[in-house]
UniProtKB/TrEMBL annotation:
The organism of origin for this protein: Paenibacillus oenotherae
Protein's recorded name: Copper amine oxidase N-terminal domain-containing protein
Domain Copper amine oxidase-like N-terminal: 34-111
Top-rank taxon: Bacteria
Pfam families: Cu_amine_oxidN1 (PF07833)
Keywords recorded for this protein, A-Z: Signal
Signal peptide: 1-25
InterPro entries: Cu_amine_oxidase-like_N, Mao_N_sf
Length: 188
């Protein structure tokens, strides 16, 4: 009797193991690297096709994702945002560590093919701490516009990379979406 139970258990385990090996061979997880950074969610490869998370790809591309439940359609919008940093009338990108400077951010936005409700500009220090530069609602219905912040006084207290980030909020969402980045390097 024990031999029969052992034989049945061995047969079930063999079938289960073979099924798992077949499933693993049919759908393979793959690493996805975009601009040198590996995405958190692995892609899947099956039947000669690669499947990726649209949300993660859109976040990596710094774009806006829209989901239409009625038509079961995902749309990805990637506006062009070019940022310039001005200290008085001079464009800059590097500063000396410890300096407190007054500057403004100028952004040129085009190819905006979806409605947005607000924009936000923040600066992140080398430790990742965020300081809001400016945020405001927008009612622009054009596919292009310019945006300029008020002057900000900021102290670059440590050496390293400071990142200016430009966010948009679409009319269909309450979430801020990162659209563009600009780096300032503080040197000793």
């Amino acid at each position: 009797m024990k031999f029969r139970k052992l034989l049945i258990l061995l047969l079930v385990m063999s079938l289960w193991g073979g099924t798992m090996l077949f499933a693993d061979a049919a759908v393979q997880k793959i690493r996805v690297i975009v601009n040198g950074s590996e995405l958190d969610d692995a892609g899947l490869f099956t039947d000669g096709k690669t499947y990726l998370s649209i949300r993660q790809i859109a976040n990596t591309m710094q774009s806006i994702v829209s989901w239409d439940e009625s038509s079961k359609k995902v749309t990805v919008y990637k506006p062009n945002v070019h940022m310039f940093l001005f200290q008085d009338n001079t464009i800059f990108g590097n500063v000396t560590k410890g300096n407190r400077i007054s500057f403004k951010v100028f952004a040129q936005i085009d190819n905006l093919l979806t409605d947005i409700s607000a924009v936000k500009v923040s600066i992140f220090d080398p430790d990742g701490k965020e300081e809001l530069i400016q945020s405001e609602k927008v009612s622009n219905k054009n596919d292009n516009f310019w945006y300029r912040t008020d002057d900000i006084n900021y102290t670059f207290s440590s050496s390293g990379k400071y990142t200016i980030r430009f966010y948009m909020k679409s009319n269909a969402s309450d979430d801020w979406k990162l659209i563009s980045e600009k780096t300032i390097t503080a040197k000793s």
